[in-house]
Amino acid sequence: MLALQGAFARHVAAIERCGAEAFEVRTAGQLDRGDALVLPGGESTTMLKLLATFELVEPLRKLLADGLPVFGTCAGMILLAADVTDGRDDQISFGAIDLDVRRNGYGRQVDSFETDLRVAAIGEPALRAVFIRAPLVERAGPEVEVLASHDDVPVLCRSGSVLTSSFHPELVDDDRLHRYFLDELVGR
Amino acid sequence: MADNENQGTGSAQGTIRVKRGLAEMLKGGVIMDVVTPEQAKIAEDAGASAVMALERVPADIRADGGIARMSDPEMIEGIKEAVTIPVMAKARIGHFVEAQILQALGVDYIDESEVLTPADETHHIDKFAFTVPFVCGATNLGEALRRISEGACMIRSKGEAGTGNVVEAVRHLRSIIGDIRRITQADEAELFDWAKQLQAPLPLVQEIAETGSLQVPLFCAGGLATPADAALAMQLGAEAVFVGSGIFKSSNPAPRAKAIVEATTNYNDADILAKVSRGLGAPMTGIGMDEIDVRLADRGW
Predict the structure, then answer these.
(1) Which of A48, A105, B156, B261 has a CB 3.0–4.6 Å from the CB of B221, allowing a cystine?
(2) Which A-chain residues 161-180 have CB contacts (< 8 A) with chain B?
(3) With contacts defined as CB-CB under 8 Å, which chain B residues touch A2?
(4) Which residue in the set A49, A86, A171 is minimally distant from B17, CB to CB?
(5) CATH code, A135
(6) Overall domain count for chain A
(7) Positive or negative, the Cα torsion across B54, B60, B61, B66?
(8) Is B27 a catalytic residue?
(9) Contacts of A41 in chain B (CB under 8 A)
């Protein structure tokens, strides 16, 4: 669990409710210890600054290249995307999944919303999806599997061992997406 | 008030979950007071998770005296355009029209703040009436729960803004977290007395007894000036920190801002704290509690 900044505590709780072990990562040494990584929601610019400061950029890039299973939510999705618009000029992303995203593409906080989302991969009932200053997916590459869309825009995407959501599954008491990640991508 | 309450099946904006959600995203971060777009950029470059746009930092408000009001919308918009991170702004206690204006401007969070001169000596803003979320200050748990009962989605311990003195922030944080801990030890009958003593709604007190934590994220503000101050607040149990005058009233704001961000992330790692605390230049001078005439923390009811 990348714990530089953001909603990492809620993710840790969700993963533990699924019966898996979770620990917080703030240094390169801790990064190597896990079987999978979750990049939480928060502020992507803040996380990028801290990734650089604590020399985590290259170790993380290498782990992603080696196929580490990773789940990125909101800011985490921005970090994993191929291209980011409306970010800062110096904003980098890891290109772990072939998505182009627009930061705050759904608007500011007053435009943030929650809605029911049908996700065939986890079945019924619908998932309550909370979008907070969420990134908007503007292009999904041919190898990206779109697991759910809202208003015809992909919001939950998978590509190999990478899972991304533009919403926040950790903010609701419904752990099915965390369970899906652990069962299908991590293969515990 | 539980965040798993049924919010219907359709799309909805401004729900408690959406409003508290942004506070969740700001956890582990530093929210910095800025008065110009240039300062906002410095804050963002340093890794701030949000900025608070205001006309004067609390130290200047304290020095200047007079009435402190909501900032000029033009100034807030300038800051919104300068950065990609969330922008907060302050409204006076009880001044719901200032809050309406800030919501119309599209700010991401409103701080109903004791740092500005109160507009109402009895009533706080009905925060349920807004789509934009609110943060409010509190000196103790009763005040925090009264604000939550009015719809606040984030609480910050007040401290004493503009002093560069962390002592009040520590007092307020210890009071809030200590009472939460004590309530979890109370039996059912004692909870009625707790609600009475705290002047807070009984259901909120009962919920704390059950969960052991405040209903909304608890951040710390008021007097933080150094990386060590930020780490102190975090180790005491704050989930993020506000730094106001402490950055831009210091001799070298950019490195100090960056160091405070790094200290907030690694608040438990003394080696990193020692490293980031080096060579930051002079912190803001600060003032002792016996040297001030006005206690901003006393504002709020």
Answers:
(1) B156
(2) 168, 171-173
(3) none
(4) A171
(5) 3.40.50.880
(6) 1
(7) negative
(8) no
(9) 24-25
Kindly report the number of other CB atoms within 10 A of residue B289's CB atom.
13
d(CA B135, CA B150) in angstroms, rounded, equals: 11
DSSP letter at B37 equals H
C-alpha distance from B298 to closest chain A C-alpha (Å): 30
| B127 interface with A at CB cutoff 8 Å | no
pLDDT score, position B244 = 87
- DSSP 3-state of B99: helix
Q: Which tens digits make up the pLDDT trace of B249-272?
A: 999 999 999 999 999 999 999 999
Is there a domain that residue A63 lies in?
Answer: yes
Name B119's Cβ contacts closer than 8 Å, sequence gap at least 6: B92, B93, B94, B95, B98
Q: What angle do CA B86, B89, B92 make, to 5 degrees?
A: 155
CB nearest A132 (choices: B18, B49, B266):
B18
Using the Cβ of B18 and the Cβ atoms of chain A, whether some distance falls under 8 Å is answered with yes
Q: How far apart are CA B24 and CA B20, in angstroms?
A: 6
Q: Which string of DSSP letters, residue by residue, matches A76-121?
A: HHHHHSSEEESS-TT------S-EEEETTTT-SGGG-EEEEE--TT
Q: Which residues of B touch A128 (CB under 8 A)?
A: 7
Look at residue B9 in the predicted model and tell me its pLDDT: 67
Q: Does B6 touch chain A (CB under 8 A)?
A: no
Find the catalytic residue in B19, B41, B80, B90: B90
Asked whether B33 and B247 are in contact (CB, 8 A), the reply is yes
Q: Whose CA is closest to B262, among A9, A56, A103?
A: A56
Q: Do the interacting molecules here have an ipTM over 0.95?
A: no
Cβ-proximal residues to B131 (8 Å cutoff; 6+ apart), any chain: A110, B13, B14, B103
Res B12: pLDDT: 94
A87 domain-assigned: yes
Task: List chain A residues with pLDDT less than 70.
Answer: none
CB B29 to CB A8 under 8 A? no
Cβ of A115 and B12 within 8 Å?
Answer: yes
Question: Which one from A18, A74, A150, A178 is the annotated catalytic residue?
Answer: A74
Q: How far apart are CA A42 and CA A25, in angstroms?
A: 15
Strand B154-157, strand B134-138: pairing: parallel
CB atoms within 10 A of CB B97: 12
For residue B49, the surrounding DSSP H or E stretch is none
Within a domain: A2: no
Q: How far apart are alpha carbons A98 and A101 in whole angstroms?
A: 10
* Among chain B residues, CA nearest to A105: B84
0.95 exceeded by pTM: no
What range does the domain containing A90 cover? 8-186
How far is B38 from B160, CA to CA, in rounded Å? 26
Q: Is A145 on the interface with B (CB under 8 A)?
A: no
A4 touches chain B (CB under 8 A): yes
